[in-house]
Design a protein that fits this description.
Radius of gyration of chain B: 22 Å
Oligomer: heterodimer
Structural class of chain A: mainly alpha
CATH class of the largest domain in chain B: Alpha Beta
Radius of gyration of chain A: 23 Å
CATH superfamily of the largest domain in chain B: NAD(P)-binding Rossmann-like Domain
Helix content of chain B: 25-40%
Shape of chain A: elongated
Distance between the termini of chain B: 47 Å
CATH architecture of the largest domain in chain B: 3-Layer(aba) Sandwich
Number of domains of chain A: 2
Strand content of chain B: 5-15%
Shape of chain B: globular
CATH topology of the largest domain in chain B: Rossmann fold
Helix content of chain A: 55-70%
Structural class of chain B: alpha/beta
Number of helices of chain B: 12
Distance between the termini of chain A: 56 Å
Chain lengths: ~260, ~450
């Protein structure tokens, strides 16, 4: 039924050009969205998704939809409404909607959904929002932002992430190590090496795992010597057996690499 | 305990879990000694196991792996207190019935998988959570140095597959995807014949179980005291509890949560994935996949249709319809496609395979050929035993991480095609859609904190 509605809306939207019928349905759906809460009829929001699908090759229409969606975020709309908005913006969002998403990064209930959108928005503005929010955030929200900076492999955040390796919250320090591993440049490798040697015993496995990832990134970037140095450290007998195995496998891969 | 008593206990256990096994279509339970495996194994030689997720599928795995003298189940984990306590009791009662004292207390029960994975005395884990946890739990297990058996679909998103393959490969872990038809004789035979060209060039393949899922919004209900809802959701976006997603206590359905895209992908990922695995295997595509996916929403095709690089078409349909399918010689158009199975149609015949020994072909003489002999030391008709054997030998399992991920990706591609409502071009070498930004964005989802892969 939902699919039929979408297809019909897409077809009519395309046939009518701008689609007056679709606009009316979309307006009605946006009106519902303002008060949309958990347990409400999901089909009521389908026209918005149909309008988004129909606007794929219409930049102006898509921009207008992005704006209308972003306008919901600063309002008192329920969490379910903003959840829906973030999901849509994760697919069509640009730098234009970042200012509306950024404050949500610190929101206990919506921090994840803000990242859900921002992590997918390729514009540097999305990355900058994550960087800006990092020092302001705390607890799980901060861990999430660290994770996103790692997924985006944000080299500009290396210094901030290195400082978080010393965080007394083990979860935070482990997240920072993981993010640095994914970024995988020389500065990250150096910090992870020190963390592995001097960090808490309880985080040794997290440090080793991040170092392995970092070595793979370095190797992929042609920095064979740096990668081999990491593998050599991780293959020492004091490392857990499976880490040693991984390090030896890494060494073999590195040595087999032509350049 | 005599063999007779032991067998009776096993039969009783099997009967008890038979109904619950449902879609597990568990590997045939053959006594370990029949398979040439020692009936008594020194404790130090046993493979120690932990179970993550003991709902309907997980319970089936517990019952089956409890059978083997070469394994010792040390721990179970579930966010539903009733389920983990029930699984713990099952394990302890099972071992007690084998002990001279008639007593056994040695199975721990955990709410949080991280506590189970932190145990250095556990060699391997069986992951039978909901799809949202599969990749994450696999990766955490690999990081902890454990070998893994993971239920299908092995992941929720395409990029999770890549992360899984990386981690399993990095740590050299043995991974067995719960696509157990890889260890089932009729499927092995069918795929062998297809690969040998006995039906000529394969032009069309048909499988059933169509359909994905779309976002839902169920009314909030109070979270039961015995359920850790936050950990149930895990990496998925937060949403309120509703009993549709999880029935506290004994499971009523296999995958109730697969109606919501945050937790699954509907029929395609829950059921058709078994069939896709057979298709990938039969077509020799374990390291590749289709290159084009066209959903019926486009109006270009009546059914979800995949195309491989050699122009072989794969369609998801309950039966062949003469109005838009060419009915091959020897095929009755009223015949339904076997659930979890596949119909391979080639230039010179067809092979139709399904569970419970179903194997038909046209011309029938194709099946007269003597099958390739199986290696005597590989218990090929038992997916669990294949996994255990590979843990010892460190050889590639029947359904390795790359094969399991590739088959899962076929299902996920179908979901994304339905969701985008357009024909998609897929590059199976780069794991990316060609020229479609939005579809590429759908390959990955941000995990809820603190989780990431």
């Amino acid at each position: 039924m939902f699919r039929t509605t979408i297809c019909l809306a897409v077809a009519l939207g395309g046939w009518c050009g701008c689609g007056a019928w679709a606009d009316e349905a979309t307006d009605k759906a946006f009106a519902v969205l303002k008060g949309y809460d958990w347990g409400q009829d999901r089909a009521a929001l389908q026209p918005i998704e149909a309008a988004i699908a129909a606007s794929r090759s219409d930049g102006a229409a898509r921009k207008a939809l992005e704006q209308r969606l972003a306008e919901v975020l600063p309002t008192q709309a329920p969490q379910a409404a903003k959840d829906f908005v973030c999901r849509q913006l994760s697919l069509i969002g640009t730098a234009e909607c970042v200012p509306a998403l950024e404050p949500l990064l610190l929101d206990e209930k919506l921090g994840h959904m803000a990242r859900y959108a921002l992590e997918r928005i390729p514009d540097d503005a999305a990355l900058q929002a994550l960087r800006t929010a990092l020092p302001k955030a705390s607890g799980l929200r901060k861990v999430g932002i660290v994770n996103s900076l790692g997924v985006r492999r944000d080299v500009s955040s290396v210094a901030a992430l290195v400082s978080l390796l010393a965080d007394t919250d083990a979860q935070m320090a482990a997240a920072a190590a993981g993010a640095l591993g994914k970024i995988g440049n020389a500065d990250a490798a150096k910090a992870l090496g020190e963390f592995l040697a001097k960090g808490p015993e309880a985080l040794r496995l997290a440090a080793a795992d991040a170092s392995l990832v970092c070595a793979e990134r370095l190797l992929a970037d042609g920095k064979k010597a740096e990668a081999l140095a990491i593998y050599k450290t991780l293959s020492k007998p004091e490392m857990p057996k499976h880490v040693q195995v991984a390090a030896v496998r890494g060494q073999v891969a590195a040595l087999g690499q032509k350049k | 305990m005599s063999q007779g008593q032991r067998w009776n206990r096993r039969q009783a256990l099997r009967r008890a879990c038979a109904a619950a096994s449902g879609l597990l279509a568990a590997p045939l339970v053959v006594k370990a000694n029949v398979l040439g495996l020692a009936d008594s194994v020194a404790p130090s030689e046993r493979i120690t196991l932990g179970f993550i997720g003991v709902g309907m599928m997980g319970r089936g795995h517990v019952h089956h792996l409890l059978e083997y003298a070469q394994t010792q189940i040390l721990a179970v984990c579930d966010v539903d207190r009733w389920r983990r306590d029930d699984a713990k009791n099952t394990v302890e009662q099972g071992y007690a019935s084998q002990a001279a004292s008639g007593q056994y207390k040695g199975c721990s029960a955990y709410n949080d998988l991280r506590d189970l994975l932190a145990r250095p005395d556990i060699d391997a884990v069986v992951i039978a959570t909901g799809d949202r946890w599969h990749a994450l739990a696999t990766i955490l297990a690999a990081k902890a140095g454990k070998d893994v058996y993971c239920e299908k679909p092995v992941s929720l998103t395409i990029c999770e597959n890549l992360a899984m393959m990386e981690h399993i490969d990095r740590y050299g872990r043995i991974f067995q995807a719960g696509l157990q038809q890889r260890s089932t004789p009729e499927f092995m035979r069918a795929c062998e014949l297809v690969q040998k060209g006995r039906i000529g060039q394969v032009r069309n393949v048909y499988v059933t179980s169509p359909g994905t899922c779309y976002d839902v919004n169920f009314a909030p209900e109070p979270v039961p005291d015995t359920l850790d809802w936050d950990l149930w959701l895990g990496p998925a976006p937060w949403r309120p509890f509703n009993r549709v997603f999880h029935h506290v206590g004994p499971p009523k359905f296999v995958v109730p949560w697969h109606v919501c895209p945050d937790f699954g992908g509907g029929n395609l990922t829950s059921n058709a994935v078994h069939a896709f695995d057979v298709v990938q295997w039969g077509l020799g595509m374990d390291e590749s996949g289709p290159v084009e996916i066209t959903p019926p929403e486009t109006g270009k095709v009546p059914l979800l249709t995949y195309k491989y690089a050699n122009d072989t078409l794969l369609q998801v349909t309950p039966r062949l319809d003469p109005s838009h399918h060419t009915i091959p010689p020897g095929w009755d158009a009223n015949t339904p496609i076997q659930v979890f199975g596949a119909l391979f149609v080639g230039d010179s015949g067809w092979i139709h395979v399904g569970r419970q020994g179903f194997l038909e072909a046209y011309p029938r003489e194709i099946l007269a050929e003597t099958p390739a002999s199986t290696e005597p030391d590989r218990p090929v008709t038992n997916h669990h035993l294949n996994w255990l054997s590979c843990i010892r030998t460190r050889e590639r399992s029947a359904c390795s991480v790359s094969a399991g991920c590739r088959s899962t990706i076929v299902a996920q591609l179908g979901c994304i095609a339905h969701w985008t409502q357009r024909s998609l071009q897929w590059n199976p070498e780069k794991f990316e859609f060609v020229g479609d930004v939005e579809a590429n964005l759908m390959r990955q989802r941000t995990m809820r904190e603190p989780w990431t892969v």
